[in-house]
Write a structure and sequence with these properties.
Blueprint lengths: L1 E5 L2 H18 L4 E4 L6 H12 L9 E4 L1 E3 L10 H8 L11 E2 L8 H14 L4 E4 L21 E4 L2 H7 L12 E4 L2 H5 L3 E6 L5 H9 L17 E6 L7
Parallel strand pairs: 1-10, 2-3, 2-6, 3-5, 6-9, 9-10
Antiparallel strand pairs: 4-8, 7-8
Helix pairs in contact: 1-2
The chain binds fructose -6-phosphate (F6R).
Length: 240
């Protein structure tokens, strides 16, 4: 595990974007695992800037997002599909048919999970970008006695619903279920880039990176992966 700390988020975002661009430049057909949430927004902005500067083309890559809410149409502004279009896909030359998210509108959610896993198996992820939840979740793999390996439907925990409520008109509108890649799928990525920003992530980052490996903190399982790059701003990296 390599841990890098940055004095500013700007520097962190530039570094992370450069990392992805280097991967794409050296392997134009790379498969990237992507995340939503506040953490990656600045990284995506930098990637878009570099694309607009003519430094990189996304035309041949494939992307898989970690998760999607159940029951939200892609056009819904709170869906992760909408988020990805707004912050990244809508600004780059990535073909629509190679940008994958779980389909939270699928009539048969179990079949959708199997379909997603089959696609992931066919196109292993070169670099998986991850944020971390305050409870240590990665993707929507919430702390529990056991964790799933593959893509599955998850009941979101109260703290996650509360954290996400800021994006919805009321707590009642926050979807209670999501489809998420499993911890097993995440750990199959060749490289994992875990990003933490802000003082509110300092405690959980310490627990995830230096605490016991436990399903109580799903991010702690990243300690078992051979190739994890952790990027932290000064506040999130305070205790590591
Ligand atoms: C998002 C995701 C989540 C977030 C996590 C942190 O696709 O999978 O695990 O990475 O909830 O969210 P932010 O970045 O908003 O603090």
């Amino acid at each position: 595990m390599i841990i890098r700390k940055f004095d500013s988020r700007e520097e962190l975002d530039s570094y992370a974007a450069q990392y992805f661009i280097y991967i794409i430049q050296t392997k134009p057909t790379a498969t990237l695992g992507l995340a939503t949430g506040s953490t990656p927004i600045g990284i995506y902005e930098k990637m878009v800037e570099r694309y607009r500067g003519g430094e990189v083309s996304f035309a041949q890559i494939t992307t898989f997002n970690l998760d999607e809410y159940v029951g939200l149409q892609p056009q819904n502004e709170q869906s992760y599909a909408y988020f990805m279009n707004r912050h990244l896909f809508g600004h780059i030359d990535l073909p629509d048919n190679r940008a994958f998210l779980p389909n939270g509108m699928a009539a048969d959610l179990a079949a959708e999970c199997s379909r997603y896993d089959a696609m992931l198996a066919a196109q292993p992820i070169d670099v998986q970008l991850l944020g971390i939840g305050h409870n240590g979740h990665i993707g929507f793999n919430e702390p529990d006695r056991t964790l799933h390996g593959g893509t599955h439907v998850v009941e979101l925990k109260r703290e996650t619903l509360e954290a996400n409520a800021r994006f919805f008109a009321s707590m009642d509108e926050v979807p209670k279920q999501a489809i998420t890649m499993g911890v097993g799928s995440i750990l199959k990525a060749r490289t994992i880039m875990l990003v933490g920003k802000g003082a509110d992530k300092a405690d959980i980052m310490k627990q995830a990176l230096t605490g016991p490996i436990t399903t109580d903190c799903p991010a702690s399982l990243l300690q078992t992966h051979a190739n994890v790059l952790v990027l932290l701003d000064r506040e999130a990296g305070r205790y590591v």
